[in-house]
Each structure stands twice: as C-alpha cells, then as structure tokens.
Design brief:
By secondary structure, the protein is of the alpha/beta class. It has eleven helices and 14 strands. α8 (209-217) links the parallel β10 and β11.
Length: 323
C-alpha cells in the first residue's frame, strides 16, 4: 500500500517534533521540509529535501498533506489559507478566541482540499474531552488547567516583540484553583484565578525593557487577563536553564446526576510539548488524507474527525484490540 506523502512547513520546535513523528509512522513518508530560512543552513534528522517555502507550489500533486508548524500569532493566519488552497493541511492554531474567525478564512480557501485546524492538545485533545464530559454531565462545569510548563504559542508571541532576542513563557496553574475544581463544589473561577504566567526574556542590546514588559502584560488573548511576571535574564542563563520544553495540564469536569456528584479528569505530563504536538498533528494528517479521499473538503476541527481515521490500523483490529 502506498504511503501518505507529508510535507512540513516551518522547522522550529513543532516542525522538528512533527518530523520525528512522521519518520516513526508506518504509513507515511516525509517528502520535503519548507523553510523561510536559507535551506542550506537548516540541519534535520531526516534525509528529506529542505526547500524554500515558495517552492511548495511547485510540489502540488507530490504531497498529500502539509503540516503547518508555524506560530499562531503571525504565521498561520497567512499560511493557513495560502496552503489550504493548494494542499490538504493540518495545523495547531491555538489562539482560542480567534478560532471561529480563522476557521472561516481557511474554509473559504479549502474548496477542494481538507484542512484540519487547531489539532494540538489544547485546542485539540482537551477540546474533545470538554465536549465529551459536558455532553455526559450537562449539569456540570468544566475546568481546564495548563502547566506547569512551556507554552509555545505564548513564547512565540513574545518573540515577535521588537527588541526581544529570546523568550520562554511558563504557564503555572494555581494549586488552590485545582483543588477547588477537584472538590466537586463547582466554584466560579475567573481566568486570573486559575493561572500565573511567568516569562523569561533575553533582549537585544539597547532594547527598552520597560516597554517590552508593558507590551507583554498588555497583549490581548495571551497575557492581558492573567497575572504575568516578566524576568529579564542573560543569554547564557537562558540557554542553561530554559532550553527544555515540558508541559502538561488537566481537564476536570464536575457534575451531577440526580442526587449524585461526579468528577471526571484527564491529565497530561509532557517531557516535550512540541514533540507531543507534532505527534498529534501527524495523526490528524492521516485523518485529513482519508477525509479528502472521501470528498470531505473544507476546514475541519477535531470535533469533525472520526476517531477511527487517526489510527494506521484497520477498523476491525481497533475494535478487537481497543474497544
């Protein structure tokens, strides 16, 4: 059986994670990696060709699914519709408030292609759990906690600020809020009640640190609604102490049926946020390929994808081994 031909757009942390996931997939082959950098300067773990991003159009018909691994703040709003017009795509767009708007833009471009957006772990897997839990226990409340760990989207948003050389952002859930959610008391928790965001930032020489801190703390959809701590550090300290990218989180749903209370919970503990995200995207690439073959075109989310389309195994094997 022929393998699914994959392309990767963007070779940052998620792109590298996706590359490893594709290489491990039994039914896929990596055809090319596309970058905005000089292709000669990019070192990869695979033997796939490294091409300039503008070369992608010339490979229509040679790639079945394109994994878009850029950032949600600047890259995907432009790349999503651009590539959905030419290829089946999967991305991990994670600006929750803008997903409906982004979905509409990508859908307008994906006339003869299948485009699965926001396929990370939140949005993505956690979204599915929120849907399932709230459907089973409609008389209830869902709580989502992220961390402790590195948020790639928030780190990338800081990197877009003028004067920033390097940055990382840690999302830290408040223990008191987690305990309240697990108690079954269904507390009303505001955004600021649940998390603290801590940033470690390296600036270019002469950068206005006060202005950078102000821009971070006032950034809508990222930091404005949170208690945010900004630490300015040197490059050497950054490399020594902030090079790993762990993450994790919880979805907790507390609800009632009649006189009885129930608490359902899913948790993740990730050594590598980008590698886990890249693995999710790769599974959804398989689904995008199959849905496209069924003529299910347009922009889709994880809510629209049959779970059976994610696995390389056939239906009867899945039923026998997992059901």
């Amino acid at each position: 059986m022929s393998r699914i031909r994959i392309g990767i757009v963007g070779y940052g942390n998620i792109g590298k994670g996706a590359e490893r996931a594709v290489l491990a997939a039994p039914d896929m082959e990596l055809r090319a990696i596309f970058t905005r950098r000089d292709p000669v300067s990019v070192n990869t773990v695979s033997s796939a060709p490294i091409l300039a991003i503008d070369a992608a159009e010339g490979m229509k018909g040679e790639i079945d699914v394109m994994l878009l691994c850029g950032g949600s703040a600047k890259d995907l709003p432009e790349q999503g519709p651009r590539f959905a017009a030419m290829f089946n795509i999967v991305d991990s767009f994670d600006t929750h408030a803008k997903i409906p708007e982004y979905l509409a833009v990508v859908d307008a471009a994906a006339i003869n292609t299948t485009a699965i957006i926001s396929s990370g772990w939140d949005p993505g897997l956690f979204s599915l759990l929120r849907l399932v839990y709230s459907s089973i226990l409609p008389d209830g409340e869902s709580y989502t906690f992220w961390g402790p760990g590195v948020s790639q989207g928030h780190s990338n948003a800081i990197l877009r600020i003028e004067g920033v050389r390097n940055a990382i952002q840690y999302t830290i859930p408040r223990d008191t809020a987690i305990a309240a959610a697990r108690s079954g008391a269904r507390p009303k928790l505001e955004t600021r009640d649940k998390h603290v965001r801590e940033c470690f930032v390296v600036t270019h020489p002469g950068a206005d640190r006060a202005q950078i801190e102000q821009k971070i703390k006032g950034m809508p959809n990222y930091f404005k609604d949170y208690d945010t701590v900004v630490n300015f550090i040197g490059h050497d300290e950054f490399i020594e102490n902030h090079s790993a990218m762990p993450h994790g989180g919880f979805v907790i749903h507390s609800g009632r049926t009649g006189e009885n209370g129930h608490v359902a919970e899913l948790s993740l503990k990730l050594d590598s946020n980008p590698e886990f995200t890249g693995s999710i995207m790769t599974a959804y690439a398989r689904a995008a390929f199959r849905m496209s073959g069924d003529g299910l075109y347009g922009a889709k989310t994880v809510f629209d994808v049959p779970p059976i389309y994610l696995s390389p195994d056939d239906r009867l094997t899945l039923i026998k081994e997992l059901l």
